[in-house]
């Protein structure tokens, strides 16, 4: 408000290097504070002055100039575009080749903040020739340079298969894979994130990541003391598992499912989410893979997540995953039913506090329905008769109408537990599917019992 930005501008061209550097630092701190300040600095025409003499400047100025560019670019795609338009990318790429690690780190960081906003800005970073130099940076001995360069490669890869392919073509996967066992947690986070962003786009890219021999070493990340390493490790496994049954089978064979199950059981909150999704993706592919999840004791932690978690989207994911496990055969559905998942799923559906998305996942979008349509384990279905709303009731009654005509023991139990009485209370529309189911059940018993 006091017009400081305009007073600082001429000092960027001062003959004394320390004044130029301190001025840039002041501008960087102002820009970092909020979007309005950053916009004011751009409007004052400071960016061209900041970078015009960058290649000749000393390393301290270069680091500070990269900080200013990062501080402006981070706020919005429009401000990042303004940084690109003033010719900053070329200067930043030159800084990636600097002998000083701090200059490389600052340049990588600024490029990452530009690339993360959109595919177009990411493409601009690629076109400026940054990717091969970033791949060299992840091979540097300095931990900070490795970390920021891996983060920037992640930001470039995330937008599209083409951008991820550019990173792959520069040879990044092999170097990233070698860094997974790095003792520094922050490096591991960024490396796992970068590999996830590459693997997520297509089967081919996921296979390239797997071929870099990330298994079984990536499974150790699921036991890491750092929550983000755990989460990013599980995310990487999820992005591989989702593509094909073959990739999921490879994860199972590597002991990946058992490791993910342990991970879900040992953590809470959003850290659980990618692991939950992984089990759902693996189970969705085939009966055998779903059974592999069951054998690895995947159902209990998913049921626990339904009960323990407060965030609706995590409950929704757990409901979806249980639906994927139980939808294949009566045997699969029985395993889910025996774990007492059905009453919990039903409670979520009828709970007025559940979000629409969660209700959709837990019921209409098939979790409960998928399991009920396969489940012939009547002891688990019977308690639901007394609580289920009409939309769910028809699926439960449908399963009873399939089993009771062929099982005399189940018919006797159905009377003594009050199930048959409950069926008589249901008001079904004449000629509806539900009425047909009820008639089939009633036909299993003599008239006087029905009465």
Automatic annotation (TrEMBL):
One of its GO terms (cellular component) is axoneme. It comes from the Eukaryota. It holds the Pfam family Arm. GO terms for molecular function: microtubule binding. SUPFAM superfamilies: ARM repeat. InterPro entries: ARM-like, ARM-type_fold, Armadillo. GO terms for biological process: epithelial cilium movement involved in extracellular fluid movement; filopodium assembly; neuron projection extension; sperm axoneme assembly. This is SPAG6 protein. The lineage of its organism: Eukaryota, Metazoa, Chordata, Craniata, Vertebrata. The gene is Spag6.
């Amino acid at each position: 408000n006091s017009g400081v930005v305009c007073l600082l501008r001429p000092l960027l061209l001062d003959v004394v290097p320390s004044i130029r550097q301190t001025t840039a630092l002041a501008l960087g701190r102002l820009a970092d504070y909020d979007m309005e300040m950053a916009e004011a600095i751009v409007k004052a025409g400071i960016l061209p002055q900041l970078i015009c003499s960058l290649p000749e400047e000393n390393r301290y100025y270069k680091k500070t100039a990269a900080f200013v560019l990062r501080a402006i670019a981070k706020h919005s795609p429009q401000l990042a575009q303004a940084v690109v338009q003033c010719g900053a990318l070329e200067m930043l790429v030159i800084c990636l080749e600097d002998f000083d690690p701090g200059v490389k780190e600052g340049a990588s960081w600024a490029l990452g903040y530009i690339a993360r906003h959109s595919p177009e800005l990411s493409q601009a970073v690629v076109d400026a020739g940054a990717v091969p130099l970033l791949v060299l940076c992840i091979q540097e001995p300095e931990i900070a340079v490795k970390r920021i360069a891996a983060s920037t490669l992640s930001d470039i890869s995330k937008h599209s298969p083409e951008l991820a392919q550019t990173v792959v073509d520069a040879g990044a996967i092999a170097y990233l894979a070698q860094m997974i066992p790095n003792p520094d947690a922050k490096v591991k986070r960024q490396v796992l994130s970068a590999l996830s962003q590459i693997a997520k786009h297509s089967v081919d890219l996921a296979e390239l990541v797997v071929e870099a021999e990330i298994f079984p070493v990536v499974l150790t990340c699921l036991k890491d003391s750092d929550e983000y390493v755990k989460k990013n490790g599980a995310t990487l496994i999820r992005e591989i598992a989702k593509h094909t049954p073959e990739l999921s089978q490879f994860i199972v064979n590597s002991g990946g499912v058992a490791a993910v199950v342990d991970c879900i059981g040992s953590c809470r909150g959003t850290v659980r989410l990618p692991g939950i999704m992984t089990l759902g993706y693996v189970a969705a592919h085939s009966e055998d893979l779903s059974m592999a999840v069951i054998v690895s004791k995947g159902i209990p932690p998913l049921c626990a997540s339904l009960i323990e978690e407060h965030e609706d989207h995590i409950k929704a994911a757990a409901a979806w995953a249980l639906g994927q496990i139980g939808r294949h055969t009566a045997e699969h559905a029985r395993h889910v039913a025996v774990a007492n998942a059905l009453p919990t799923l039903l409670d979520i559906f009828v709970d007025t506090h559940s979000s629409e998305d969660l209700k959709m996942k837990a019921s209409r979008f098939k979790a409960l329905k998928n399991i009920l349509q396969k489940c012939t384990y009547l002891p688990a279905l019977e308690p639901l008769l007394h609580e289920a709303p009409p939309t769910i009731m028809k699926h439960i009654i449908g399963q009873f109408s399939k089993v009771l005509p062929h099982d005399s023991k189940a018919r006797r139990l159905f009377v003594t537990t009050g199930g048959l009485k409950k069926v008589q209370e249901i008001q079904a529309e004449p000629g509806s599917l539900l009425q047909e189911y009820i008639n089939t059940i009633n036909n299993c018993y003599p008239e006087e019992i029905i009465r």
